[in-house]
Specification:
Radius of gyration: 29 Å
Number of domains: 3
Distance between the termini: 92 Å
Largest sheet: 4 strands, antiparallel
Strand content: 5-15%
Helix content: 55-70%
Number of helices: 17
Length: about 450
Protein backbone atom coordinates (compact mmCIF):
# COMPACT_ATOMS: atom_id res chain seq x y z
CA UNK A 1 0.00 0.00 0.00
CA UNK A 2 1.35 3.41 -0.97
CA UNK A 3 1.67 6.13 1.66
CA UNK A 4 -1.09 8.13 -0.06
CA UNK A 5 -3.47 5.18 0.37
CA UNK A 6 -2.35 4.62 3.96
CA UNK A 7 -2.84 8.32 4.75
CA UNK A 8 -6.34 8.42 3.30
CA UNK A 9 -7.30 5.23 5.11
CA UNK A 10 -6.36 6.64 8.49
CA UNK A 11 -8.02 9.96 7.58
CA UNK A 12 -11.26 8.04 6.89
CA UNK A 13 -10.91 6.27 10.21
CA UNK A 14 -10.49 9.64 11.93
CA UNK A 15 -13.63 10.89 10.21
CA UNK A 16 -15.45 7.80 11.49
CA UNK A 17 -14.12 8.34 15.03
CA UNK A 18 -12.11 5.10 15.06
CA UNK A 19 -8.65 6.49 15.94
CA UNK A 20 -7.76 7.26 19.54
CA UNK A 21 -5.62 10.36 20.29
CA UNK A 22 -2.50 8.39 21.22
CA UNK A 23 -2.67 6.31 18.03
CA UNK A 24 -3.09 9.44 15.90
CA UNK A 25 -0.17 11.20 17.61
CA UNK A 26 2.11 8.16 17.16
CA UNK A 27 1.16 7.74 13.49
CA UNK A 28 1.63 11.43 12.70
CA UNK A 29 5.03 11.66 14.43
CA UNK A 30 6.33 8.52 12.72
CA UNK A 31 5.29 9.81 9.27
CA UNK A 32 6.03 13.52 9.72
CA UNK A 33 8.56 13.78 6.79
CA UNK A 34 6.14 12.05 4.38
CA UNK A 35 3.23 14.21 5.54
CA UNK A 36 5.16 17.38 4.84
CA UNK A 37 5.42 16.28 1.22
CA UNK A 38 1.86 14.95 0.90
CA UNK A 39 -0.05 17.81 2.57
CA UNK A 40 0.08 21.54 2.16
CA UNK A 41 0.85 23.77 5.12
CA UNK A 42 -2.78 24.64 5.74
CA UNK A 43 -3.92 21.02 5.92
CA UNK A 44 -1.08 20.15 8.28
CA UNK A 45 -1.96 23.04 10.54
CA UNK A 46 -5.64 22.12 10.62
CA UNK A 47 -4.98 18.45 11.37
CA UNK A 48 -2.09 18.89 13.78
CA UNK A 49 -1.93 22.43 15.26
CA UNK A 50 1.29 23.38 17.04
CA UNK A 51 -0.36 23.18 20.47
CA UNK A 52 -1.95 19.78 19.80
CA UNK A 53 -1.87 17.28 22.66
CA UNK A 54 -3.33 13.82 23.08
CA UNK A 55 -6.90 14.61 24.11
CA UNK A 56 -10.35 14.34 22.61
CA UNK A 57 -10.61 18.12 22.41
CA UNK A 58 -7.69 18.22 19.99
CA UNK A 59 -8.88 15.05 18.27
CA UNK A 60 -12.11 16.85 17.42
CA UNK A 61 -9.99 19.62 15.85
CA UNK A 62 -8.10 16.99 13.86
CA UNK A 63 -11.35 15.47 12.64
CA UNK A 64 -12.51 18.90 11.49
CA UNK A 65 -9.23 19.32 9.58
CA UNK A 66 -9.68 15.91 7.95
CA UNK A 67 -13.24 16.77 6.92
CA UNK A 68 -11.97 20.01 5.35
CA UNK A 69 -9.27 18.06 3.50
CA UNK A 70 -11.78 15.71 1.86
CA UNK A 71 -14.22 18.54 1.15
CA UNK A 72 -11.50 20.52 -0.64
CA UNK A 73 -10.86 17.48 -2.83
CA UNK A 74 -14.53 17.28 -3.78
CA UNK A 75 -15.08 14.16 -1.67
CA UNK A 76 -17.02 15.29 1.41
CA UNK A 77 -17.27 12.65 4.14
CA UNK A 78 -19.69 12.13 7.00
CA UNK A 79 -18.02 12.59 10.36
CA UNK A 80 -18.82 10.77 13.59
CA UNK A 81 -19.81 12.61 16.78
CA UNK A 82 -17.60 10.28 18.83
CA UNK A 83 -14.85 12.81 19.53
CA UNK A 84 -17.31 15.56 20.43
CA UNK A 85 -19.04 13.25 22.90
CA UNK A 86 -15.76 12.07 24.41
CA UNK A 87 -14.55 15.67 24.53
CA UNK A 88 -17.59 16.68 26.61
CA UNK A 89 -16.99 13.75 28.94
CA UNK A 90 -13.33 14.73 29.18
CA UNK A 91 -14.20 18.35 29.92
CA UNK A 92 -16.71 17.32 32.57
CA UNK A 93 -14.09 15.16 34.29
CA UNK A 94 -11.54 17.97 34.20
CA UNK A 95 -14.07 20.52 35.46
CA UNK A 96 -15.09 18.18 38.26
CA UNK A 97 -11.46 17.68 39.20
CA UNK A 98 -10.89 21.46 39.18
CA UNK A 99 -13.97 22.02 41.35
CA UNK A 100 -12.83 19.35 43.80
CA UNK A 101 -9.54 21.23 44.15
CA UNK A 102 -11.45 24.49 44.64
CA UNK A 103 -13.63 23.04 47.39
CA UNK A 104 -10.54 21.61 49.07
CA UNK A 105 -8.83 25.01 49.01
CA UNK A 106 -11.74 26.82 50.69
CA UNK A 107 -12.19 24.22 53.46
CA UNK A 108 -10.63 26.39 56.23
CA UNK A 109 -12.84 29.45 55.63
CA UNK A 110 -15.91 27.33 54.96
CA UNK A 111 -15.43 25.49 58.25
CA UNK A 112 -15.19 28.77 60.16
CA UNK A 113 -18.38 29.99 58.46
CA UNK A 114 -20.18 26.72 59.22
CA UNK A 115 -19.05 26.90 62.84
CA UNK A 116 -20.50 30.40 63.05
CA UNK A 117 -23.80 29.13 61.62
CA UNK A 118 -23.90 26.30 64.16
CA UNK A 119 -23.64 28.91 66.89
CA UNK A 120 -26.31 31.05 65.20
CA UNK A 121 -28.81 28.50 63.82
CA UNK A 122 -31.75 29.41 61.61
CA UNK A 123 -34.87 27.49 60.68
CA UNK A 124 -34.38 25.66 57.37
CA UNK A 125 -37.22 25.68 54.84
CA UNK A 126 -38.75 22.27 54.12
CA UNK A 127 -40.29 22.58 50.67
CA UNK A 128 -40.65 19.97 47.91
CA UNK A 129 -39.63 22.22 45.03
CA UNK A 130 -38.66 19.24 42.87
CA UNK A 131 -42.36 18.45 42.52
CA UNK A 132 -42.75 21.71 40.59
CA UNK A 133 -40.38 20.68 37.80
CA UNK A 134 -41.70 19.77 34.37
CA UNK A 135 -44.94 20.80 32.72
CA UNK A 136 -46.94 23.27 34.84
CA UNK A 137 -50.18 21.82 36.20
CA UNK A 138 -53.12 22.89 34.09
CA UNK A 139 -51.00 24.30 31.28
CA UNK A 140 -53.07 25.12 28.20
CA UNK A 141 -52.37 23.06 25.06
CA UNK A 142 -49.85 24.54 22.65
CA UNK A 143 -51.17 26.35 19.59
CA UNK A 144 -50.45 25.42 16.00
CA UNK A 145 -48.82 28.23 14.06
CA UNK A 146 -48.73 28.32 10.23
CA UNK A 147 -45.29 29.97 10.40
CA UNK A 148 -42.01 29.51 12.28
CA UNK A 149 -40.58 33.05 12.42
CA UNK A 150 -42.73 36.13 12.88
CA UNK A 151 -42.54 38.43 9.86
CA UNK A 152 -45.51 40.78 10.09
CA UNK A 153 -46.76 43.06 12.85
CA UNK A 154 -49.72 40.75 13.45
CA UNK A 155 -47.46 37.71 13.75
CA UNK A 156 -45.20 39.51 16.23
CA UNK A 157 -48.27 40.37 18.27
CA UNK A 158 -49.48 36.76 18.24
CA UNK A 159 -46.09 35.41 19.24
CA UNK A 160 -45.67 38.01 21.97
CA UNK A 161 -49.07 37.30 23.51
CA UNK A 162 -48.51 33.55 23.46
CA UNK A 163 -45.01 33.94 24.96
CA UNK A 164 -46.35 36.06 27.81
CA UNK A 165 -49.04 33.48 28.52
CA UNK A 166 -46.43 30.70 28.81
CA UNK A 167 -44.22 32.88 31.02
CA UNK A 168 -47.14 33.65 33.30
CA UNK A 169 -48.06 29.96 33.54
CA UNK A 170 -44.56 28.99 34.59
CA UNK A 171 -44.11 31.94 36.93
CA UNK A 172 -47.32 31.07 38.77
CA UNK A 173 -46.64 27.33 38.84
CA UNK A 174 -42.92 27.35 39.75
CA UNK A 175 -41.63 30.67 41.05
CA UNK A 176 -44.61 31.84 43.13
CA UNK A 177 -44.71 28.67 45.31
CA UNK A 178 -41.00 28.71 46.13
CA UNK A 179 -41.11 32.47 46.82
CA UNK A 180 -44.03 31.98 49.22
CA UNK A 181 -42.23 29.08 50.90
CA UNK A 182 -39.40 31.48 51.78
CA UNK A 183 -41.81 34.08 53.14
CA UNK A 184 -41.71 36.38 50.14
CA UNK A 185 -44.68 38.39 48.95
CA UNK A 186 -45.52 39.85 45.57
CA UNK A 187 -44.50 43.44 44.96
CA UNK A 188 -45.80 43.37 41.39
CA UNK A 189 -46.61 40.69 38.80
CA UNK A 190 -42.92 39.76 38.39
CA UNK A 191 -41.37 40.86 41.72
CA UNK A 192 -41.10 39.08 45.08
CA UNK A 193 -39.73 40.58 48.32
CA UNK A 194 -39.24 39.72 51.97
CA UNK A 195 -38.18 41.79 54.98
CA UNK A 196 -36.78 40.12 58.06
CA UNK A 197 -34.63 41.44 60.91
CA UNK A 198 -33.36 44.46 58.99
CA UNK A 199 -32.63 42.49 55.79
CA UNK A 200 -34.47 42.41 52.49
CA UNK A 201 -34.54 39.70 49.82
CA UNK A 202 -35.79 40.62 46.37
CA UNK A 203 -36.32 38.64 43.16
CA UNK A 204 -37.41 40.49 40.06
CA UNK A 205 -37.90 39.39 36.47
CA UNK A 206 -37.03 42.31 34.22
CA UNK A 207 -39.26 42.74 31.18
CA UNK A 208 -37.56 42.92 27.80
CA UNK A 209 -37.52 46.56 26.73
CA UNK A 210 -38.85 45.79 23.24
CA UNK A 211 -42.01 44.20 24.55
CA UNK A 212 -40.95 40.55 24.58
CA UNK A 213 -40.54 38.31 27.62
CA UNK A 214 -38.00 38.51 30.44
CA UNK A 215 -34.67 40.17 29.77
CA UNK A 216 -33.06 39.10 33.04
CA UNK A 217 -33.63 38.08 36.64
CA UNK A 218 -32.30 40.34 39.39
CA UNK A 219 -31.85 38.86 42.87
CA UNK A 220 -30.29 40.39 45.93
CA UNK A 221 -30.04 40.21 49.71
CA UNK A 222 -28.99 43.34 51.59
CA UNK A 223 -29.78 45.47 54.64
CA UNK A 224 -32.94 47.52 54.17
CA UNK A 225 -30.96 50.77 54.33
CA UNK A 226 -28.60 49.69 51.51
CA UNK A 227 -28.75 49.71 47.71
CA UNK A 228 -27.95 46.43 45.92
CA UNK A 229 -24.64 47.50 44.39
CA UNK A 230 -21.10 46.67 45.42
CA UNK A 231 -22.28 44.69 48.43
CA UNK A 232 -21.72 41.26 49.91
CA UNK A 233 -23.53 38.56 47.95
CA UNK A 234 -23.38 34.82 47.33
CA UNK A 235 -20.39 32.47 47.17
CA UNK A 236 -19.01 32.29 43.66
CA UNK A 237 -19.83 28.60 43.18
CA UNK A 238 -23.51 29.44 43.76
CA UNK A 239 -23.95 32.77 42.01
CA UNK A 240 -21.72 31.81 39.06
CA UNK A 241 -21.67 28.01 39.28
CA UNK A 242 -23.17 25.28 37.12
CA UNK A 243 -26.80 25.98 38.05
CA UNK A 244 -26.36 29.65 37.19
CA UNK A 245 -24.61 28.89 33.90
CA UNK A 246 -27.32 26.42 32.94
CA UNK A 247 -29.98 29.01 33.80
CA UNK A 248 -28.29 31.68 31.67
CA UNK A 249 -27.79 29.39 28.66
CA UNK A 250 -30.44 29.80 25.95
CA UNK A 251 -32.12 32.56 27.98
CA UNK A 252 -33.49 34.02 24.74
CA UNK A 253 -36.23 31.38 24.74
CA UNK A 254 -38.05 33.45 27.41
CA UNK A 255 -36.84 36.82 26.18
CA UNK A 256 -37.83 37.29 22.55
CA UNK A 257 -41.27 36.87 21.00
CA UNK A 258 -40.04 36.45 17.43
CA UNK A 259 -40.76 32.73 16.93
CA UNK A 260 -43.97 30.74 16.88
CA UNK A 261 -44.65 29.54 20.41
CA UNK A 262 -45.59 26.05 19.30
CA UNK A 263 -45.37 22.77 21.25
CA UNK A 264 -41.59 22.58 20.90
CA UNK A 265 -41.14 26.18 22.06
CA UNK A 266 -43.51 25.70 25.00
CA UNK A 267 -41.43 22.71 26.09
CA UNK A 268 -38.24 24.79 25.91
CA UNK A 269 -39.88 27.53 28.01
CA UNK A 270 -40.93 24.95 30.61
CA UNK A 271 -37.36 23.59 30.75
CA UNK A 272 -35.89 27.07 31.14
CA UNK A 273 -38.13 27.77 34.11
CA UNK A 274 -36.96 24.46 35.56
CA UNK A 275 -33.40 25.83 35.35
CA UNK A 276 -34.48 29.07 37.06
CA UNK A 277 -36.29 27.14 39.80
CA UNK A 278 -33.26 24.93 40.47
CA UNK A 279 -30.98 27.98 40.75
CA UNK A 280 -33.34 29.67 43.20
CA UNK A 281 -34.54 26.71 45.28
CA UNK A 282 -31.41 24.56 45.32
CA UNK A 283 -28.80 27.30 45.60
CA UNK A 284 -29.60 30.93 46.19
CA UNK A 285 -32.54 30.89 48.61
CA UNK A 286 -31.22 28.14 50.96
CA UNK A 287 -27.91 30.03 51.19
CA UNK A 288 -29.68 33.27 52.02
CA UNK A 289 -31.96 31.51 54.51
CA UNK A 290 -28.88 31.00 56.70
CA UNK A 291 -28.61 34.78 57.11
CA UNK A 292 -31.42 36.06 59.33
CA UNK A 293 -29.82 39.08 60.99
CA UNK A 294 -27.57 42.02 60.24
CA UNK A 295 -24.97 40.55 62.59
CA UNK A 296 -24.77 37.38 60.49
CA UNK A 297 -24.78 39.37 57.26
CA UNK A 298 -21.73 41.36 58.40
CA UNK A 299 -20.02 38.50 60.25
CA UNK A 300 -16.28 38.32 59.60
CA UNK A 301 -16.61 34.57 58.98
CA UNK A 302 -19.10 35.17 56.19
CA UNK A 303 -17.07 37.95 54.62
CA UNK A 304 -13.93 35.78 54.64
CA UNK A 305 -15.87 32.92 53.08
CA UNK A 306 -17.24 35.13 50.30
CA UNK A 307 -13.79 36.59 49.66
CA UNK A 308 -12.28 33.12 49.33
CA UNK A 309 -14.93 32.15 46.76
CA UNK A 310 -14.65 35.26 44.57
CA UNK A 311 -12.43 33.54 42.00
CA UNK A 312 -13.18 30.09 40.69
CA UNK A 313 -10.76 27.36 39.55
CA UNK A 314 -9.32 27.50 36.07
CA UNK A 315 -11.49 26.25 33.25
CA UNK A 316 -9.61 23.28 31.75
CA UNK A 317 -10.71 24.33 28.27
CA UNK A 318 -9.81 28.02 28.34
CA UNK A 319 -7.26 28.28 31.15
CA UNK A 320 -9.21 31.22 32.59
CA UNK A 321 -11.07 31.25 35.94
CA UNK A 322 -14.56 29.77 35.72
CA UNK A 323 -15.74 32.95 37.42
CA UNK A 324 -14.11 36.05 38.84
CA UNK A 325 -16.19 38.34 41.04
CA UNK A 326 -13.23 40.40 42.17
CA UNK A 327 -12.61 44.00 41.20
CA UNK A 328 -8.93 43.57 40.40
CA UNK A 329 -8.01 45.86 43.27
CA UNK A 330 -10.11 48.71 41.91
CA UNK A 331 -12.37 50.61 44.29
CA UNK A 332 -16.12 50.35 43.89
CA UNK A 333 -16.98 53.25 41.53
CA UNK A 334 -20.01 54.19 43.63
CA UNK A 335 -18.29 53.70 47.01
CA UNK A 336 -21.42 51.75 47.94
CA UNK A 337 -19.42 49.56 50.33
CA UNK A 338 -18.32 52.65 52.26
CA UNK A 339 -21.97 53.59 52.70
CA UNK A 340 -22.94 50.01 53.61
CA UNK A 341 -20.23 49.53 56.24
CA UNK A 342 -20.28 53.16 57.37
CA UNK A 343 -23.90 52.95 58.50
CA UNK A 344 -23.26 49.59 60.15
CA UNK A 345 -20.35 51.09 62.08
CA UNK A 346 -22.56 53.95 63.30
CA UNK A 347 -25.27 51.53 64.42
CA UNK A 348 -22.63 49.66 66.44
CA UNK A 349 -21.22 52.76 68.10
CA UNK A 350 -18.07 52.94 65.97
CA UNK A 351 -18.60 56.57 65.06
CA UNK A 352 -15.02 57.42 64.04
CA UNK A 353 -14.88 54.57 61.53
CA UNK A 354 -18.47 55.07 60.38
CA UNK A 355 -18.22 58.78 59.70
CA UNK A 356 -14.89 58.31 57.91
CA UNK A 357 -16.48 55.77 55.56
CA UNK A 358 -19.54 57.93 54.91
CA UNK A 359 -17.34 60.96 54.28
CA UNK A 360 -15.44 58.98 51.67
CA UNK A 361 -18.68 57.92 49.97
CA UNK A 362 -20.16 61.42 49.91
CA UNK A 363 -16.93 63.12 48.85
CA UNK A 364 -16.48 60.72 45.93
CA UNK A 365 -20.03 61.30 44.62
CA UNK A 366 -20.50 64.99 45.37
CA UNK A 367 -19.33 66.53 42.10
CA UNK A 368 -21.36 64.16 39.95
CA UNK A 369 -24.47 64.44 42.13
CA UNK A 370 -24.42 68.25 42.13
CA UNK A 371 -24.91 68.31 38.37
CA UNK A 372 -27.21 65.30 38.39
CA UNK A 373 -29.58 66.75 40.96
CA UNK A 374 -29.75 70.05 39.11
CA UNK A 375 -31.04 68.17 36.09
CA UNK A 376 -33.19 65.71 38.06
CA UNK A 377 -34.24 67.38 41.34
CA UNK A 378 -36.41 64.44 42.40
CA UNK A 379 -33.73 61.79 41.88
CA UNK A 380 -33.14 61.19 45.59
CA UNK A 381 -36.74 59.98 45.91
CA UNK A 382 -36.72 57.88 42.74
CA UNK A 383 -36.21 54.08 43.17
CA UNK A 384 -34.90 53.97 39.61
CA UNK A 385 -31.92 56.17 40.57
CA UNK A 386 -29.97 54.03 43.03
CA UNK A 387 -26.90 56.28 43.18
CA UNK A 388 -28.93 59.38 44.04
CA UNK A 389 -30.87 57.47 46.71
CA UNK A 390 -27.65 56.18 48.26
CA UNK A 391 -26.04 59.64 48.14
CA UNK A 392 -29.01 61.19 49.93
CA UNK A 393 -28.98 58.46 52.59
CA UNK A 394 -25.25 58.86 53.15
CA UNK A 395 -25.66 62.63 53.51
CA UNK A 396 -28.42 62.20 56.08
CA UNK A 397 -26.29 59.89 58.21
CA UNK A 398 -23.21 62.08 57.80
CA UNK A 399 -25.21 65.09 58.95
CA UNK A 400 -25.60 63.60 62.41
CA UNK A 401 -21.88 64.18 62.96
CA UNK A 402 -22.57 67.86 63.61
CA UNK A 403 -24.46 67.13 66.86
CA UNK A 404 -21.98 67.80 69.68
CA UNK A 405 -23.78 65.94 72.49
CA UNK A 406 -22.92 62.20 72.28
CA UNK A 407 -26.25 60.91 73.59
CA UNK A 408 -28.30 63.18 71.36
CA UNK A 409 -26.09 62.20 68.42
CA UNK A 410 -26.73 58.50 69.03
CA UNK A 411 -30.47 59.17 69.25
CA UNK A 412 -30.34 61.08 65.97
CA UNK A 413 -28.39 58.29 64.30
CA UNK A 414 -31.16 55.85 65.30
CA UNK A 415 -33.89 58.24 64.14
CA UNK A 416 -32.11 58.73 60.83
CA UNK A 417 -31.75 54.96 60.45
CA UNK A 418 -35.48 54.46 61.02
CA UNK A 419 -36.34 57.26 58.59
CA UNK A 420 -34.00 55.92 55.91
CA UNK A 421 -35.42 52.40 56.35
CA UNK A 422 -38.94 53.79 56.05
CA UNK A 423 -38.10 55.26 52.66
CA UNK A 424 -36.03 52.26 51.57
CA UNK A 425 -38.98 49.94 52.11
CA UNK A 426 -40.55 51.82 49.23
CA UNK A 427 -37.30 51.57 47.26
CA UNK A 428 -37.19 47.77 47.65
CA UNK A 429 -40.88 47.33 46.89
CA UNK A 430 -41.93 46.52 50.45
CA UNK A 431 -44.23 49.53 50.79
CA UNK A 432 -46.21 51.92 48.65
CA UNK A 433 -44.80 55.26 47.52
CA UNK A 434 -43.20 57.10 50.42
CA UNK A 435 -41.97 60.66 50.72
CA UNK A 436 -38.89 61.48 52.77
CA UNK A 437 -39.39 63.40 55.99
CA UNK A 438 -35.75 64.52 55.98
CA UNK A 439 -33.89 65.93 53.00
CA UNK A 440 -30.36 67.08 52.30
CA UNK A 441 -31.50 70.32 50.71
Amino acid sequence: MSFQDEMKQIFLRVAAGEVEPEEWEAWWNSNRPKLEGALNRGDRGRMMPASWSASYYWMAKTQSGVAYYFHAQGRPVKVSGYYEEKMREEENRERQKAMEGYYKDIVPVRQRWEAYLEAHPTSPIAFDWKGLLGTPAGQEPAKDFPYKNARTTQQWKECGEELKLRLKENLQAKIVPVAKAYGMKKAGPKTFVREKNGLVIRIRFVGYFRGGGYEAIICYLCPIYAVPYGILGLPGHICQGESFQRMQKDWGVIQYGLEAVDAAMVERINRKFDDILIFLADGMLPEWQKIDSLETYFARERRDYLKATETGPKNPKTGRPMWDLGTGGKADPWRADDYLFGVWDLLNGKETEGYARLEKCVRHNTEYMKDHLKEFPGACNDPRDAMAVMYCNAQLFLGTREIPDAEKRRDQIQETYEEVCRFMRYYHGLAKKTERLQTIF
